[in-house]
Specification:
The protein has 704 residues and is of the alpha/beta class.
């Protein structure tokens, strides 16, 4: 079966439950009962050779004994029997199978062998498999009404949210959460070990599913990140994709040899990946569904300027803090808006944002404020908060919000604080497709997620710049020479030559091997200078006196050279000295770091941040996966906390940010052209003032 067409799995006309059981406390009984009693519109066949009927339905000894066509098989038999069952499914021309049975790759080598054999049989018959080691699937489409899981007997109401879970336990918990909050779903799919069908298989199917408007994912890993990114970027233009990726605290860099390697942990790379893919990454199950509800019902905001309307100051402040923390903006209300608010609100009410209607606000005051604020062109989205008081009629306020907000085409989230007397108000909001939450920080965070997605779908589309002023042959020769010599680390002169071949601007330098050469080259380069020893054995130059700073004239250069050689001879006499690097010492500018790490899953990862010796302590860096688009490089620079320093802080001149962006794009191209480079640090790249460019002062390159 074509993997892009999963309709026979997601919407089967007939289902065989192989391993259906009459025993009440069994998985086979639970799955069969859920299908039978969930209103499934197709035909269900229990397969069990040991009993004649289950729950009043005739059983069949084998799927081969079923006289009719079968679209989908649900397999719940011992793991060593699954291969034989799938073989029979193939002979029966079954379109797909959901293997609920555990005991495969997740339990070790023997299970992994069973799983590989299972996949081989499935591919032999072009039969698609979900699982093994999964919970099953649910399709709430009224034309299907299939609940083929062993979760508690509950089928969500038909909705617009599809949820795909790699973890069975997490999936069951999600269904319980959906039941508790009455969240409506279009699909629930537990993919388990992802032996065959995986997230990349399901995304196109959910893209084409008319019932699904929002796709939620729980992921523990990715099968093919490049394919996922391509799919997510395409699908995300029309259907938002939100994801939880577990494993945030796992160490991503073990014994890393560069700043980039130490900083680019697994979680940071996943963050970068999801950002580039247009996937909204959330932190937990509650946030996943909180956001899913809003994404399913609310329009996309044009920008990230958020207004807050509240009847209490404290909740408004809490919402404000969350909006700013998440990177959105508090909308600056127009003067006309504030004048209009002043005419209709009490004197003690706040006409600024947050708009505080004060505690005695009733539905009429809310309506006036909503109309005035939503008519402000500087407002893209809003959070509406209501704390119950003796003056408030929550149901009436809910009706006002429901009837007023949709006219303006701007997204809203609502917070009705408290737990009593809000049930009817909540029902009114739900009927109108208005997402509501118990706490202001949740409503605020959800609205920022909407603005994040709104930016994504409206972002300017940029290409990938291809630099022509490069010398690939020179770089290849440098790498070949190092490999032939058995060297993985390139010394600075070779690192500089490699970067220069790809158009990186370098601080002037020369490699000298004698005092006489030092005396000759120093004035040519220009003072002040720095001298650095070049030796394959000396990694920490400062420890052996291998660095001399602030060289002001020729005599000083000669003296520094002699002192350096004497110190190294004393502290590390066996070191092979290749020479001394005489380099222009750059005064002024801002130190930044550019880095490359080759990740085994994602490939080349590019890093940017403020540079210097404290880069690992500050961890103020951004990451992206190569290749970098024009807009990607720009966002990398601007999203670090220290960007204000580059913009010009407290009267300082702006740094040449555009030159930094160019260097990032050059590094991206270098990373793609030469996979032999596993790690690379440019630290620092000194960014000079606007229009003056930037200069590479130090570089470290590691080869595979």
């Amino acid at each position: 079966m074509d993997k892009s067409d999963l309709k026979f799995i997601l919407a089967p006309r007939s289902v065989a439950v192989i391993g259906a059981s009459a025993r009440e406390d069994s998985v086979g009984r639970a799955v069969f009962a859920n299908i039978l009693f969930s209103g499934y519109k197709g035909i269900v066949y229990p397969v069990n050779p040991r009993v004649k009927s289950i729950l009043g339905v005739r059983t069949y000894p084998s799927i081969l004994d079923i006289p009719d066509e079968v679209d989908l098989a649900i397999v719940i038999v011992p793991n060593i029997t699954v291969k034989k069952v799938i073989e029979e499914c193939g002979q029966k021309a079954v379109k797909g199978a959901v293997v609920i049975t555990a005991g495969f790759r997740e339990v070790g080598e023997e299970g992994e062998k069973l799983e590989k054999e299972l996949v081989e049989v499935a591919r032999k018959y072009r039969l698609s498999i979900i699982g093994p080691n999964c919970v099953g699937l649910i399709n709430t489409d009224p034309q299907v009404s299939l609940n083929a899981t062993f979760a508690r007997p509950f089928t969500p109401k038909p909705g617009q949210i599809a949820f795909v879970s790699q973890s069975g336990a997490f999936g069951v918990a999600a269904l319980e959460y959906a039941r508790k909050r009455d969240i409506r779903l279009s699909k629930f799919i537990s993919v388990g070990n992802k032996a065959d069908v995986n997230e990349n298989t399901l995304l196109p199917a959910l893209r084409d599913d008319e019932q699904t408007k929002v796709i939620l994912l729980y992921l523990e890993d990715l099968v093919n990140p490049a394919e996922f990114m391509e799919l997510a970027r395409e699908i995300g233009e029309k259907k938002p994709i939100l994801a939880i990726k577990s494993g945030r605290t796992l160490a991503g860099a073990r014994a890393a040899s560069s700043h980039t390697g130490a900083l680019a942990g697994s979680d940071e790379i996943y963050n970068a990946f999801f950002t580039q893919a247009g996937v909204i990454r959330v932190d937990n199950l509650e946030e996943l569904f909180d956001c899913g509800l809003a994404f399913a019902t609310q329009p996309h905001p044009k920008s990230n300027r958020v207004a807050i309307i509240t009847n209490a100051g404290g909740p408004g402040i809490v919402a404000t803090d969350m909006i700013i923390k998440q990177g959105a903006q508090l909308a600056a209300l127009e003067a006309r808006t504030k004048e209009r608010l002043a005419r209709v609100l009490p004197p003690t009410a706040s006409k600024e944002n947050p708009v505080d209607l004060i505690g005695d606000a009733k539905e009429d005051r809310y309506e006036l404020a909503i109309r005035i604020v939503f008519e402000d062109d500087g407002v893209d989205a809003a959070v509406i908060i209501c704390t119950p008081t003796v003056f408030t009629n929550l149901e009436a306020i809910a009706k006002t919000i429901r009837d007023t907000v949709p006219r303006y085409g701007k997204p809203v989230t609502v917070c009705f604080m408290g737990t009593e007397d809000i049930e009817r108000a909540a029902q009114v909001l739900e009927e109108g497709g208005i997402p509501h939450y118990l706490f202001p920080e949740i409503a605020a965070k959800v609205i920022t997620r909407l603005t994040e997605y709104g930016w994504w779908v409206r972002r300017p589309l940029t290409g990938i710049k291809k630099f022509e002023d490069i010398d690939q042959k020179k770089v290849a020769a440098i790498i070949k020479k190092a490999k032939e010599a058995g060297r993985k680390f390139l010394p600075e002169p070779e690192s500089y030559a490699l970067l220069q071949a790809y158009g990186f601007p370098l601080a002037p330098f020369a490699l000298v091997k004698t005092e006489e050469e030092c005396a000759e080259k120093a004035p040519e380069i220009g003072f002040p200078l720095v001298l650095k020893v070049v030796s394959p054995q000396i990694v920490h130059k400062v420890d052996v006196g291998g660095v001399k700073l602030n060289i002001e004239d020729r005599e000083h250069a000669l003296k520094a050279y002699r002192e350096m050689m004497a110190s190294i001879k004393q502290k590390m006499p066996s070191a092979e000295i290749w020479g001394v690097l005489v380099q222009k010492m750059i005064k002024g500018g801002k130190e930044t770091i550019l880095g490359l790490k080759r990740d085994p899953l994602f490939g080349p990862v590019i890093m940017f941040g403020l540079g210097g010796v404290y880069v690992e302590a500050m961890r103020d860096v951004s990451f992206r996966i190569a290749p970098l688009r024009e807009l990607t490089a720009s966002r990398m620079v601007r999203e670090i906390r220290g960007y204000r320093i580059l913009e010009g802080f407290r009267g300082e001149e702006r740094s040449d940010v555009e030159k930094i962006e160019e260097c990032l794009k050059r590094l991206s191209q270098l990373a793609l052209d030469f996979p032999e480079i596993t790690e690379l640090d440019i630290n620092p790249l000194i960014a000079l003032n606007q229009g003056q460019g930037a200069l590479v002062v130090d570089a470290r390159i590691l080869l595979a």
